[in-house]
Amino acid sequence: NIEQVSDVKSMLARYFESQYDIKNRACISYKNLTVNNLNSKIRSNIIDSEDCFVPNEELTFLSAMVVDDKVVIGNNEVVTIDKLEKLEDKSLGITYYKIIDKDARLFRAVDMSCRDDFEYELQEIAKQAKKAVGSAKSSYWQRYFEIKNTFQQIAYTYCSTIYKVQGGSYDEVYIHLDELLSMRSIIGDEGLYRSLYVGATRTKDKLVLLMR
Fold first, then answer.
1. Which segments of the chain does DSSP mark as H helices, in order?
2. What is the structure's pLDDT at 137?
3. How far apart are CA 9 and CA 212, in angstroms?
4. Considering the entire predicted model, what is its pTM?
5. How crowded is the C-beta side of 148, counted as CA atoms within 13 Å?
6. Residue-wise pLDDT tens digits, 60-79
7. Is the separation of the CB atoms in 16 and 158 below 8 Å?
8. 73 phi and psi, to 5 degrees?
9. Is residue 26 a contact partner of residue 166, using CB atoms and an 8 Å limit?
10. 149-167 pLDDT, tens digit each
11. Contact between 177 and 3 (Cβ < 8 Å)
């Protein structure tokens, strides 16, 4: 069963009207920026909170969390928040959350509203490290990785890139086909067809395509 919508607003309207459980719906796009935007739009409609994370919410890890050379939480692993505390790091000028998941694993995540400031701070430290020499260079890089490894890269689970959903199966799948077609000159025909195949074959029942 294939449906077509002409814009993001129509696609999201169809998404929110769906009778399927939210865990059995997959919203897929190609670019990370689009994924983040769609995730925010979907979440704001579902969760009534000014906080960017709340108890019982699911999150996807975008890279593995490693502690003492051991992978504690894997790349692409989905975790469920059990408890959390909102804190402030004055040295970085950001707020962040100390989170414990349902498996009693502790991790820290930067407040979504502070992500740009956090990334800017990391880039500035990296620039200083590249310019420095001797022990100063080592100190800057040590500081860089200490900060980077303190906070985990996570995302909401409502929308994902095409290749993040490989191996998954959903009752209903939404694909931002317009965006995928716009990438044709970059990924080529083979990349386009492969991406569309991966996305389209995730569904068990309905496929909704955003295509003008």
1. 8-17, 32-46, 115-131, 134-150, 177-182, 184-200
2. 95
3. 12
4. 0.85
5. 15
6. 999 999 999 999 999 989 99
7. no
8. -135, 125
9. no
10. 999 999 999 999 998 888 8
11. no
